[in-house]
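note to self — DONT lose this again. spent like an hour looking for the file last time. sequence + predicted structure for the chain T wanted, 392 res
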Amino acid sequence: MPAFLLWRPSRDGIASSGGAAIFSCALGIASVALPLVALRSGYSATEVGILTAISAVAQLATRFVLGVVMRFVGDWLLIAGASLLLAVSNALVAISAAILPFIIGQALQGVARACFWTGSQTHVVRGSGRSVGALAIINLVSGFGLLLGPVAAGVVIERSIRASLVVGAVIAAAAVVPALMLDRLPAFSPPPERPPGRIWRRPGVNAGCWAGVSAGAWRGLLSSYVPVALESARQSAPTIGALISVANGAQLVGSFLVGRVSGPWIRRVYVLGTVAAGGATALVTLGAGSWWMAGALLAISGLGAGALQTVGPAIATDAVHPEERGEAIAAAGAFRAAALFGAPLAVAGAVAVIPLAAAMGIAGALIAATAYMVRGQIPSAAPSGAGRSGRQ
């Protein structure tokens, strides 16, 4: 049964879920408003792409250091700070769309995203329940927020595009309130006896990182070359928007449906999710001429990516000592951010010499192949030494 049907809310659970929904809504508003503000302020499409890349680079750089940061800062402070940074990011561009405020605003948004998602995922897996179920709840509510945000932005933009950023800033600031209601869990204190080497190379964590690569690459391609493929197949703008929504909705469904999996099903879901996300993405360009075929392929890929989004971090955190869970979450998130940024760049380089259908086919096949690469490192259950850290 899906995790959300069995959820018994506590004060901390309500606060973490509510904060994720509010932050996601503000982020969804910014994702629509910021590019439109840039375009209407005279920036070219290339410049808009560069500004967006600044946010991605800032997010990636931040995720690489969060494992160390969480040894000194509690996750609830990370979440509250991220909400404030997103509010400042939106407010800066609402005040001025000049290049410097825009660059700073985009960089702050990237830092905010890295801090919030790492902090919120880390916080929920430190409870007494199962990691995969806790992550499923967070992914569910944040998915609803990301769906609601663009709709809200569209309504407000009809009156004033700058006003949409003001609304986004206010909503982001409101996310501080539930952050202050979270249990004040202490910063992590890594055990003195740690296995040698980088944490992302350990079995289990390695698999979680590769799940992040697969899910991140899928998201990066969905936001870039999937619309291009549909446009090239002469699908109308409303149809393209609807098909992308199908993929996003399927990701949301896949994310929370796996909330109750355990034992051998962890490995099966990982493999099936990776093959579905990669295989369907590889074929979507070939089926782009038919809306129903494209919709079916995007739905399959979204279900797979959503499953990976939940089971990947759960595998990583269940494979380490409770006091290393922050590092494991940060590592998986860094790999996801790198793929989110790198996959569209790789396809962009490939289409210079081969057709888009071939480039997407190769990208999808590589995503699917990661399941084979790490199949032996996916535990069928949490290791006995990786029990949950209790509330303190």
